Structures are given as C-alpha cells and as structure tokens.
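Write out the 3D structure for:
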Amino acid sequence: MASPSKRLFAFRRATLGRKVALVVTALLIFSYPFPAASQEGKGADKPGIRVLIVTGQDYQGHDWRATSRALREILAQEPGVDARIVEDIEFLASEAIFDYSVVVIHFKNYGPPRREKAIYENLQKFVEQGGGLLLTHFACGAFEEWPGFVRLAGRVWDKNKRPHDPHGRFIVRIVDQAHPITRGLKDFETVDELYTCLGGEEAITVLAIARSVVDGQNYPMIFVREVGRGRVVHSALGHDPVAYQAEVYQQILRRAVRWLARQD
C-alpha cells in the first residue's frame, strides 16, 4: 500500500495533468481557423469599412436619432461595413476618428463646438490624408462659423438663399451615369425637403439633381469632390426616416461609403 505522501504526489500529478489537458484543449478550440461568416454579394472579398456617424444635435424639426439609426441600418446591409453612431459632436476632436475609414456628419450645430480648433484641424487632416467624409441633409449648416468648412463640404448653407421647397414628393434625377456611385441607377422619387440653400464656389461633380416646384430651377442633391488624398460625398437629402426609404437612394448611400473608402 502506498504511503500518504506518495498518494498525495500521485493525486497532484493527476490534477496537474487534467489542468494541462484543459488548457491545451482550450488553445486548440480558440486557435482553430473557423470559416468566416458568409458575406454574399459585392464587397464580400474586400476588407472591412469602419464608418463613424457623428450626430447628437440638429434643427428641432429634424429627428436626428431616427435618421441616424435609419442611416446606420442602410449601411449595415453592405457586406463588410461596420457603422457606429456617436451622439456627441465633440468626439470629432478625438484622435479616435482616424481609426475609421469614413466619417459621417449628421448634425446641425448652433454655435461653435467647445473644442472647435481641434475639431476643425482633425476633420481637415482626416480628409486630406485620405479619409472619406459623408455629409447628409442639414450637415451643410454644420460649422457655419468655420470659413474652411466649405472647402470640405463643397457647398454650405447660405442664410441669404431660400431654404427649401415645401416638404413633399419630388423626383431626384441621376445626371452622372459614369460615376461609380450612380452608375446604372435610375431616377427615383422621394418625400423630402428639396434644398435650395446651398452656396459656394468649390469644384464639385454633381451626381443627382432635383427641380424645384417653386422656381423651376434645378438644384444639386448629391455631389462629390476630392480634397487632398481624401474624398467627400455631400447629400442634401435626409429630412426624416421616410426620406431614406427609396431603394435607389439606399444603394447610393452604400456605394458612397465604398467610394469614400476607395473600394469602388
């Protein structure tokens, strides 16, 4: 019969053996190359795109919570796109924005942000170094106190112009069939505010327009430009969640993100 000390040694050795076996098993499980989740459709073989939707304030007639969520849901349908909402425009002062491929300006602020210098410098640097910037609806009025904002946005809110047609239905006409964002797409109907308030002289490429029922003139609804090594997409559409329901517009937004991230 084994002595107590030998039995204790054998017990400890057996216990240690079981622990080692459990650790080895766990390592095998977590290191096993499980197949990636299926991503059918365009972009399945391309690297992921991190999108930051910055919101948190707007004109009181704009439900920014509802529209930012609608936008995120639309973008999330695109394989490989990971969209996050931040409800604080001061986040733009953080170096964390450089962890994203695309930044979405989805707000209208009244008065300069607390860290305005850091925000302006960050945004300009982000785009010039190759980041993608998407502006939606009243984002044309963001940072109206910053003279350099028009260089990024291409066109900005001009208080001296008539703001928009009465909210209602109108046709958005695709005028550039060669651009990757609108190639092959047809005109579409939307229910929105037809902005007539954009001003600026920066070079832009207009992708879509709409005709005002008030003055009969055509106004740019979606346009693009390049700043430094970066790209900008500016859409005047997006008053409320209904404005995001047109399937063609949803396609445009998803393509816009890919173009901004240079995966077009």
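Helices lie at 4-31, 64-76, 116-128, 149-153, 247-260.
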